[in-house]
Structure formats: structure tokens, C-alpha cells
Design goal:
- The complex is a heterodimer of chains A (338) and B (305).
- Chain A is mainly α and 338 residues long.
- Chain A is built from 15 helices and four strands.
- In chain A, strands 1-4 form a two-stranded antiparallel ribbon. In chain A, strands 2-3 form a two-stranded antiparallel sheet.
- The longest helix of chain A has 28 residues.
- The radius of gyration of chain A is 21 Å and the shape is globular.
- The two termini of chain A are 29 Å apart.
- Chain B has a single domain, classed as ABC transporter involved in vitamin B12 uptake, BtuC.
- Chain B has eleven helices and two strands, in the order H-H-H-H-E-E-H-H-H-H-H-H-H.
- In chain B, strands 1-2 form a two-stranded antiparallel sheet.
- In chain B, a hairpin with a 2-residue loop joins strand 1 and strand 2.
- In chain B, helix 2 packs across helix 9, helix 5 packs antiparallel against helix 8 and helix 10 crosses helix 11.
- Chain B starts with a helix and ends in a 12-residue tail after the last helix.
- Chains A and B meet through helix 6, helix 8, helix 12 and helix 14 of A and helix 3, helix 4, helix 9 and helix 11 of B.
């Protein structure tokens, strides 16, 4: 028996992140500062509204990535929670009279509260069948919403809480609030993934059975991810309703929200925190650029998504950055030898 | 009498759903892929037959053309898209690369994501080419013809659909049980590695399975196109109905799928009898109820396919 000999050098160092991550995080912080302090004063109101949509897309992508990238749950029914969030916002702001910021946060909580019992239902299905099962649930939400007269039936609701507010004030408020919410969701996801729970989730992502045999609470982890991801979708739905001043069951419960989430995560890089950021910017830019082409842009999106899954399965972030982590979640061992 | 009528119509509608679900069930059974493009492909078949009929072909000839075209399409889609996606699942299962803390890519989600991309692209493409207007394949008197059945009148077209559905399911079942190709297909479904050792090429077998599935799907699409007003977006509903039929019936059982389709059809027509707006919702709710009460479905795994 020969024992592999280790050269007698200094002890190996274990690091998380590094100079690159710090510089990257600094750059990202600079972007956020620019978005908060400079951009609102130099672009048009229309552009601000469109940026609100980008922030909502980042939230949608980040939270869908939590589901699929870490929980292994491919939900094609997240539009259920986008819809719940949108309707909850309008009901809370208009009927209850809550201030809009509180109504958005409460909409997220309501999304989580609805997701918890729903998870027991959809988790009876596995893999791909779970995907369509969540879609059925979303359809049930949409059809039930349309049956309730108090929710405007088939024609939806419009937001009246902002009536009397100056348009500039309103757009500026929604913009800053959406930016803050996006930063909070991304940072929250990062902190979650750095924690002990996040380590368990990463293990579940890599191998569910092995993770379970090592004592990771797989079911609890997946349920947590489903509830958190659905709360995020509800937050985004509330933001969308706040920005567009209304909801219709056809658009807020549309499966195209989930299509957007899937595109953002797959193209950006599934299972990374950075990927959905990249993916959301790409999706948003494509949407802006291809808008004159009508539905052709969806054809392009579908084809690009298929190509990325088959040719660059780690997404744009994996392709460009490789091992580099802007949001360092994992430790790396470096040999002590100089 | 209205209720009895609704029940009978539901059973017949179930035939259509079972025919739609047959291909979904087969693809899942053989290679564990859930094809999210299933619904929109059925609608594509309906549009193709409509186009051929508009060019002056008789309907039966359009079907004779569309079904083999779809079988070929299925073979090509499997070789070109699904097999590479499945290769990623295997690569990950075998350890794959786990460099750094980064992601290993889509892994086992790859086939699902590919089929979703296809569904999104194809739906929008159909919308560009054929517009979002609803269409229907002209059938002459067939759609309105009825057959007296006791005190009721049963539509001839739904009756034909049910008969075709039973014939197709029996045919696929016989194919899997009795033919050498069917045997090889079941072997590949059980263990592709071991099957390859005996000289069966799993990639070819997968492609044959998808070709068969697409052929049944095309046939189902034509029947949908004759009996319903369809549009490019109708594929979403088709996918959901087919899926519900599979789950209600029980995974891995084609006869279960037929039973599931009938249960779903009856739920929808009875629901619509209670409230005309709520037929589809009633179907969804019965599906969810089955999920709660009998998650394995009504007839689970009577035949491993």
C-alpha cells in the first residue's frame, strides 16, 4: 500500500470568492447606483416603465431559477402566482386601501400562502408530469378568477389607487420601488444560497438521492424553494400590475410569463445566480429590438432557447465566465504551494 | 334525459382525448420525455390537413398524406432534437463535469426545455402563417350527421373518433406486445444499455417510437380539426387535456389512458351541463381530485409500455 505523498508545503487555503468577485460585485453595485441616481433623470418616462418590466423579469428569472436550477422543479405554471400577485395588489390597494408598497409586499406573502397548500398537490407528480400539472393548476386559478364577479370576471380590474397622483411621481415611485425590490430579491437569493439551507439545495440540485442519503431534508428543501419561488412570482406580478395599472385574466395568467422565465434562465445559465441577470437583460433587449416583428420574436426566442439547451447547456454565463462567480457561494481549495 | 345525453357525449369526447393522449403516453413510456410540444403539433397536423383540403384534396387523402409526413417528422425530431437532449441527461447521470461551483447545465431538464422551446416557436410560427383566427376542417355533412341510439341522437363524427381511438390503442398495444420492433422498444425502455448490448440501437428505437407517437398525434389532430374550432393557441388546451387523460388513467397503461379520457370527457360535458362556462374547469377539478385521492390513476401500470 502506497500512500500518495503530499509535498511538504504550506497548508492549503480554502477561499470563497476572491478579488475578481469583489471587483465584479463592485461593478454591479455601481450599475445599481447608476440605475437609482442617474438613469431616472436622463431617460423618458416610457423608458422608465420599460425598465420596470426589466426589473420584474429579473425577479421572475431569479425565482424560476430557484425552482428549476436548485429544486429540480420545472414549473410551467408560475403564471398562477404572477396572476395571484397582480390581483392581490389591486384588491389590497383599491378595496382595502393599503399603500401601494405595502400592497406589493403583502401580495408576495399571499403568493407564498397560496403556494404552500398547492405544493402538496403538485408534488404528487414527478418530473415532466409535474410541469404540466402546475400548468393545470394555473389554468384552474385563471378560470376560477374569471368566475368571481368581484374580481371583474373576464375583463379584469384596473388600479385606481394612483388616481390623483401626478404621472411623473407615480412612474418614479414605481421605478425606484421595483429597483429596490429586484436588488432585495437577488441579494436574498444569494444569501439563501450561501446559507446551510442553500448548501442543501445545491446538493439536491446535483443529486437528489445522494443528498437525501446524507441527511439533507429533500422534501422540505423542495417545498421551501417552491414557496419562495412562487412568492417571487407574485411580487413580480404585483409590480407588473402596479406598472401597467391593471390586470386581465388572459394576460396576467398567460403562460408566456413562464415562457419568459424559462428563456431567461436557460439562456442566462441555469443553476447560477448570475445567469438569470444576464438572461433577463438579453430577453428584455430582444423584446425591445424585435417588438416591431410581432410574434416572430417568440419564434426567435423558442429557437434560441432550444439551441442554447443543446449547444451551450451552461448558458451564456457559463460560456463567458466559466468558473468565475460574481456571487460566490462555494468554497474552493487552493494548494498551499507557491 | 339531458344528463344522460351529456354523459354519452362525454364518453364520445373521451375517445378524442384518449387518441390525443396515446402519443404522449408512448413517448413518456419509452424514453421518459414529456413532450410539451404535443398539443401544438396536433394543431399543426390539423392546419396541414386543412391546407390540403383547401387545395382540393379529399379529406381521406389528406389524412393519408399527413400521417406518414408526421411519422417522418417524428423520426427527424427525435434524431435531431430529443436524442441530443437525452444525451445530456446521460452525461450528467454519469458524473458529467462539475467544475467549480457553477451549474452543470440543464441536465435532466434538457428534453423538457427543448420541447418547450419547440412549442413556443411553433405556436408563434403558426400564428404568423395562419393568423390567430379560428378554423375548422370542412367535413360536409359528417360533422352534423347523427345516429339514433335509443332515445338519444349520437354524433357520427364523435362515434368514429371513439372507434378510431380504440383501434389505435389496440394497434399500438399489439405492436408493443407482439412484434419484434415492439419487443425491442420495450427492452430499450427498460434498460437502453442492456438493449444496446443485444444489438438494438436505442437511438433508432427512440426515433421509431416517436415516429409512431407522431403518427397517432397527427390522426388525433385531424379529428380535433374536424370537430372543434381551432387556432394556434388551442395546442395548449390539447396538451392539458391529453395530459389529464394520461394521469387520470394511470401512467404506463394505454387502456387506462382510454378510461382517463372518458372520465375527463364526461366531467367536462356534465360540468358544462351544470354551468355552460365551467366545462373545462370541471375537467381540471376532476383531474386534481384524482391526484389527491388516487395519485396512481385509475388503472395504474396494467401493461408496462
Amino acid at each position: 500500500m502506497s500512500v500518495p505523498t503530499v509535498p511538504p508545503t504550506g497548508a492549503p487555503t480554502i477561499t470563497r470568492g476572491g478579488r475578481g468577485s469583489l471587483i465584479g460585485a463592485g461593478g454591479l453595485a455601481l450599475v445599481v447606483v447608476l440605475l437609482a441616481a442617474v438613469v431616472p433623470y436622463v431617460v423618458t418616462l416610457g423608458a422608465l416603465s420599460s425598465l420596470v418590466m426589466l426589473f420584474a423579469l429579473v425577479i421572475l428569472g431569479t425565482t424560476w431559477n430557484l425552482l428549476a436550477g436548485y429544486g429540480g422543479i420545472v414549473s410551467v405554471g408560475q403564471q398562477a402566482y404572477v396572476g395571484v400577485g397582480g390581483y392581490a395588489l389591486i384588491q389590497l390597494a383599491d378595496a382595502v386601501g393599503a399603500p401601494p408598497w405595502a400592497a406589493v409586499l403583502a401580495a408576495g406573502v399571499i403568493g407564498a400562502a397560496v403556494a404552500l397548500p398547492t405544493s402538496y398537490l403538485v408534488f404528487r407528480l414527478a418530473g415532466g408530469y409535474l410541469a404540466i400539472g402546475t400548468w393545470v393548476v394555473a389554468e384552474v386559478f385563471r378560470l376560477v378568477t374569471m368566475q368571481i364577479d368581484g374580481l371583474g370576471g373576464g375583463s379584469g380590474l384596473s388600479l385606481t389607487a394612483f388616481r390623483g397622483t401626478d404621472r411623473v411621481d407615480r412612474v418614479a415611485f414605481v421605478y425606484w420601488f421595483a429597483l429596490a425590490l429586484m436588488v432585495a430579491v437577488v441579494l436574498g437569493t444569494y444569501l439563501l444560497m450561501r446559507s446551510r439551507v442553500g448548501l442543501g439545495l445545491t446538493a439536491i440540485r446535483d443529486d437528489r438521492v445522494a443528498a437525501g442519503s446524507l441527511g439533507v431534508a429533500v422534501d422540505r428543501g423542495r417545498r421551501l424553494v417552491y414557496v419562495a419561488g412562487s412568492a417571487g412570482a407574485a411580487l413580480a406580478g404585483a409590480l407588473i400590475a402596479l406598472s401597467t395599472l391593471g390586470v386581465t385574466p388572459g394576460s396576467i395568467y398567460s403562460v408566456s410569463w413562464t415562457a419568459a422565465m424559462i428563456f431567461i434562465v436557460v439562456v442566462g445559465g441555469i443553476g447560477t445566480i448570475e445567469g438569470p441577470l444576464v438572461g433577463a437583460v438579453v430577453y428584455w433587449a430582444l423584446q425591445q429590438a424585435l417588438a416591431p416583428l410581432g410574434t416572430w420574436y417568440l419564434v426567435v426566442l423558442g429557437v434560441v432557447a432550444v439551441a442554447v439547451v443543446l449547444l451551450a447547456p451552461r448558458g451564456l454565463w457559463g460560456l463567458v465566465a466559466g468558473r468565475f462567480q460574481l456571487f460566490p457561494t462555494t468554497y474552493r481549495v487552493r494548494s498551499g504551494r507557491i | 334525459m339531458d344528463w344522460l345525453n351529456a354523459g354519452v357525449q362525454g364518453v364520445l369526447l373521451g375517445g378524442q382525448y384518449a387518441l390525443l393522449a396515446c402519443g404522449l403516453s408512448l413517448i413518456f413510456g419509452v424514453m421518459r420525455i414529456v413532450n410539451l410540444a404535443h398539443g401544438v403539433l396536433a394543431v399543426l397536423a390539423a392546419y396541414l390537413s386543412l391546407f390540403l383540403v383547401q387545395q382540393g384534396l379529399p379529406l381521406w387523402l389528406a389524412v393519408v398524406v399527413v400521417v406518414p409526413v408526421f411519422a417522418a417528422l417524428g423520426y427527424a425530431v427525435q434524431r435531431g432534437l430529443f436524442n441530443p437532449a437525452l444525451a445530456q441527461v446521460r452525461a450528467r447521470g454519469a458524473g458529467g463535469d462539475s467544475r467549480g461551483g457553477g451549474s452543470r447545465g440543464a441536465g435532466e431538464l434538457a428534453p423538457l426545455l427543448v420541447s418547450f422551446g419547440v412549442a413556443v416557436a411553433l405556436t408563434s410560427l403558426l400564428q404568423e402563417v395562419f393568423s390567430a383566427d379560428t378554423r375548422r376542417i370542412p367535413t360536409g355533412d359528417l360533422a352534423s350527421a347523427g345516429v339514433p341510439l335509443g332515445p338519444l341522437s349520437v354524433g357520427l363524427l364523435p362515434l368514429i373518433t371513439l372507434v378510431v381511438a380504440v383501434a389505435v390503442i389496440a394497434g399500438v398495444q399489439l405492436f408493443l406486445a407482439r412484434t419484434p420492433t415492439g419487443r425491442a422498444m420495450r427492452a430499450v425502455a427498460d434498460d437502453p444499455g442492456a438493449a444496446a448490448l443485444t444489438g438494438v440501437d436505442p437511438r433508432h428505437m427512440y426515433a421509431v417510437a416517436t415516429a409512431v407517437a407522431f403518427a397517432t398525434l397527427a390522426l388525433a389532430g385531424v379529428f380535433v380539426g374536424m370537430s372543434t374550432q381551432f387556432s394556434p393557441g388551442y395546442g395548449d388546451l390539447v396538451l392539458l387535456f391529453a395530459f389529464e387523460a394520461v394521469i387520470i388513467g394511470g401512467l404506463g397503461s394505454l387502456w387506462g389512458t382510454l378510461a382517463g379520457g372518458v372520465v375527463l370527457g364526461v366531467a367536462q360535458t356534465i360540468g358544462a351541463q351544470i354551468d355552460p362556462q365551467s366545462g373545462v374547469l370541471a375537467g381540471h377539478l376532476v383531474f386534481l381530485a384524482v391526484l389527491v385521492v388516487r395519485p396512481g390513476g385509475l388503472l395504474p401500470r396494467s401493461v408496462p409500455a
